[in-house]
Write a structure and sequence with these properties.
The protein is an alpha+beta fold. It has helices at about 20-35, 55-70, 95, 115-120, 125-135, 165-175, 195-200; strands at about 35-40, 45-50, 75-80, 85-90, 135-145, 150-160, 180-185, 185-190.
Length: about 210
């Protein structure tokens, strides 16, 4: 796939025979979780909202976005209530992320293009990582048996209001052999020991 745009102000074009797959899959996951694309007067504006409590995630998101858009400025803007925005302006965002549209994501269909599916199939861990960093959690679940014995186990949860995005998370997990299942109205759980161990190889607690 080749995406290029010469720019209205004579700037150099972005040209890829194939977008940087790992970074693209990560940013796509981030966008589907907590991102939005807004039409501006002269370009499109990507914003990804993150929690200021996780500086490593903020830097990873910034770096991945900068790799996709090496000629464009990627900004980190602090907002109130511990929120940080990663933002970048480009006319290419509708081509790179065709899932953008008016309204909230859970009010419209979210379906990947075939070329996006190929990238996720090549880099499922990066896609899962982006989704998890935006809308996931990792914690120790404590339960009590019928006999009163307490025990604990590690668990991953992914929460999103869009059923399509939840299914994309489940699909990506299946690509690497991780078992994920729907829990409640908006959550996906990964709790089996083997699956948790597989996610631990590239996820773990947020930092």
């Amino acid at each position: 796939m080749r995406l290029s745009y010469a720019g209205r102000l004579g700037r150099l074009a972005h040209e890829w025979d194939d977008p940087p797959r790992r970074e693209y899959a990560y940013v796509l996951g981030m966008y589907l979780g907590d991102g939005c694309i807004t039409r501006m007067r002269r370009s499109y504006w990507l914003r990804i909202a993150l929690d200021a409590a996780y500086p490593d995630i903020i830097e990873e998101c910034r770096a991945a976005t900068a790799t996709l858009m090496p000629l464009n400025k990627v900004s980190i803007r602090k907002r109130k209530y511990r929120c940080v925005d990663i933002s970048c302006h480009s006319l290419l965002w509708p081509d790179l992320i065709p899932q953008h549209g008016p309204g909230r994501k859970h009010h419209r269909p979210i379906v990947l293009e075939q070329w996006q599916r190929w990238i996720v199939e090549a880099e499922p861990r990066a896609f899962i990582r982006g989704l998890f960093h935006s809308d996931g959690s990792y914690f120790q679940n404590r339960v009590r048996s019928a006999k009163g014995k307490e025990y604990a186990y590690d668990r991953y949860m992914f929460a999103n209001n869009s059923g399509d995005i939840r299914q994309l998370f489940i699909w990506a997990c299946s690509l690497i052999g991780v078992e994920a299942r729907i829990v409640g109205s908006r959550n996906v759980s990964v709790a089996r020991r083997r699956s948790v161990a597989m996610l631990n190889e590239f996820l773990g607690p947020k930092t």
